[in-house]
Amino acid sequence: MPPMLLAAGMASSLGGLIQGCAAFRAGLSRVSASRDVTCACKGESGPQPVMVCEIPVATFGFSGVGRLVALTCEVFKDLQGNVRLTDLPPKTAFFVALPDPVTRGIPVEPPADKAEARRVEALGRYVLQQSLQNLGLSMAGGEWRFFGGGHIAMARALSAATEALAHRTIQTCIVMGIDSLVDPFLLRELLRERRIKTSENPVGFIPGEFGAAFLLSAVPFMFSEPKTPRVLIRAVKLAEHPRPAAVPTPPPDGRALAECVLSVLDAAGRAGGEPRFISDHNGEQKRAHEWGMLQLHLTSKGVGSQAHRSVWFPAVGFGEVGAATGAAGLCIALRSLQRGYSQSSSIILTMSEEAGGRAAMLVSVQDTSSK
C-alpha cells in the first residue's frame, strides 16, 4: 500500500497549514518590502524596495542558519497541533530537504567542504538538533537523512522515504522541506543575477521562505483523524540530468518533465481520473516556457488537456521558496484533497531544477469504495 500522509505542519508568510492553505485558496498573499535590501532602477530618483514574502515575527532578526532554525521551530509547532510528537515511535526517521549552504552564504563545519552532500548534512543536522532542543523534544533514535538541491530536493526526500516505507525498513517517518530566500546576502546575489521581480525585470520572482513537515506511514495510526480522507503518496519520479552551470543551454522543451508525469501516472494506474496540476512555475521566463511545452506534450498523449484551467502555482501565494518548493505544493495538495475542493481526487506536482533535474509526484485520496 502506498504511504499515507497522516499529519502535516507548515510555516509560511500566510500562516500555518490550515490558515495558510485557506489564504492561498482565496488568492491572498503577504508581500512586503525587505527591511534590509533595496535596488536601483533606471528612471527612478531613489532606491526602490525589493518585495519579499517573509514569515511575520517568527524569523524577524534572524539570518543564515538562525533563520532556518527559527523556521523549523515554527514548522514543528504547527505539526504539534495535529499530532503529538512525543507519541511517535522512538525510531521515527527524518528525511529533510534543505538548500546547499554555499548558495545561501551559510558557513558549515568542516569549512569549505567540496562535497555538497556533506555540506547539506552538516547544515541539516545542526538545524534539526537545535530546533528539537529549542522545543524540548528528544527524537534522536531514528535515522536522519538530508537532501540538497533546488526545486526537486523535496522529491528526493520523498522518494527515499517512500522506498524505505515500502521495504519496511521503517514504519513511520517525518519528511521536511525548509528554505529561505529572504536573507540580505542572498537577495543581493539574486538582484545581481537579475532573477528578482522588479520594475526593470517583470519576469523575475518574489523571494519567500517556507517550511513544512509531513508524517508518513505505511499503516494508519490511532492519532490519524478518522473523518479526514486519507491522502496517499502514489508515486514519485525523478529524472536527474546534471549539467555544468557555466554551459549555456536552450530553454527546456518540457520532454523530460512530461516523461516524469507520464511515469507517475503509469505507476499509479492513473488513479483518480483527470488530475489537477501544481507547478513550480515562479514567474521566470524559462519556467513559463517549460510549463507551456509540458502542456503540449501531455495533451498529445491525452493527459492533462485541461491543465491550463486546473493548475495552482504556490509561488503566487508564498513566493519562490527554493528547496521547500515541493513541500509548499504538497501542503496545498494535501489540504485540497482533504477538504474536497481540488475538483479531482488526484493531483500531480511538477518540479524543475536549475542543474537539469526534473521530478513529478502524484498524490490522491485513498479509494474506500471497496470497503
Structure summary:
With 371 residues, the chain is α/β, with parallel strands linked by helices.
N-end to C-end Cα span: 15 Å
Counting DSSP E segments of at least 2 residues, the number of strands comes to 12
CATH architecture assignment of the largest domain: 3-Layer(aba) Sandwich
- Element order: H for helix, E for strand: EHEEHEHHEHEHEEHEHEHHEE
Mean pLDDT: 88
Assign a percent range to the helix content. 25-40%
Please identify the top-level CATH class of the largest domain.
Answer: Alpha Beta
Sheet with the most strands: spatial strand order: 5-4-6-7-1-8-12-11-9-10
| Overall number of domains | 2
Query: Radius of gyration, rounded?
Result: 20 Å
Organism: Archangium minus
InterPro entries: Thiolase-like (IPR016039)
Protein name: Beta-ketoacyl synthase N-terminal domain-containing protein
Characterization of the model:
The chain has 371 residues and is an alpha/beta fold. The chain has 2 domains: 4-217, 3-Layer(aba) Sandwich (Peroxisomal Thiolase, Chain A, domain 1), CATH 3.40.47.10; 233-365, Thiolase/Chalcone synthase (Peroxisomal Thiolase, Chain A, domain 1), CATH 3.40.47. Helix content is 33%, strand content 21%. It contains 10 helices and 12 strands. The chain has helices at residues 17-25, 64-80, 101-104, 116-134, 153-166, 184-192, 255-267, 285-300, 314-318, 325-339; strands spanning 4-11, 32-39, 48-52, 93-97, 144-147, 172-180, 209-217, 231-239, 276-279, 311-312, 346-352, 358-365. The strands form 2 sheets. Strands 5-4-6-7-1-8-12-11-9-10 form a 10-stranded mixed β-sheet, with helices on both faces. Helix 8 (285-300) links the parallel strand 9 (276-279) and strand 10 (311-312). The longest helix is centred in the middle third of the chain and has 19 residues, at 116-134. The protein starts with a strand and ends in a 6-residue tail after the last strand. The mean pLDDT is 88. InterPro entries: Thiolase-like. This is Beta-ketoacyl synthase N-terminal domain-containing protein.
